[in-house]
Amino acid sequence: MQLEITINLKKYVFIYYILIYDILLHIIWRRKMEKENFKQLLKKADFNKRTFSQYLGLKYQSVNSWGNNGRNVPYWVESWLNLYIDNKRCKQIKELLKDSGVCQ
């Protein structure tokens, strides 16, 4: 039990470290996320703009305007979507391992 808690804690510390690192990179280099990249990541995460806005509790009109008329996609969106996609993939792998009897 203690080993499992330690592993989970290390995993979450690593994820937060990556998130903070990515945010710092965006702040330092002011990298802009392109509209097409935003659309591709939404699709990869099985979101559309409406479901993404609902999931995060944002106004659909705000999300829909990102990438239009000089409105940039917020700096945190790319890293958030990438982490969401990775987490979803990890959950799928965990379920596969659980179903196969390799792990419990």
Provide an overview of this structure:
α1 (2-29) runs antiparallel to α5 (75-100) and α2 packs parallel to α5 (75-100). The protein contains five helices and no strands. The chain is mainly α and 104 residues long. The model has no long low-confidence stretch (mean pLDDT 82). Helix content is 75%, strand content 0%. It has one domain (2-100).
Distance linking N and C termini: 12 Å
Rounded mean pLDDT is 82
Query: What overall geometry do the principal axes of the alpha carbons give?
Result: globular
How would you sum up the major sheet? none
Structural class: mainly alpha
Low-confidence stretches: none
The radius of gyration is 17 Å
Total number of β-strand segments?
A: 0
Number of domains: 1
Number of helices: 5
Element order, helices and strands? HHHHH
- Helical content band: over 70%
Strand proportion, as a percent range, falls in under 5%
List the helices and strands and how they pair.
Blueprint: H1 2-29, H2 35-44, H3 49-56, H4 60-65, H5 75-100
Helix pairs in contact: 1-5, 2-5
Concise overview:
The protein has 104 residues and is an all-alpha fold.
What structural keywords apply?
104 residues, single chain, globular, 5 helices, mainly alpha
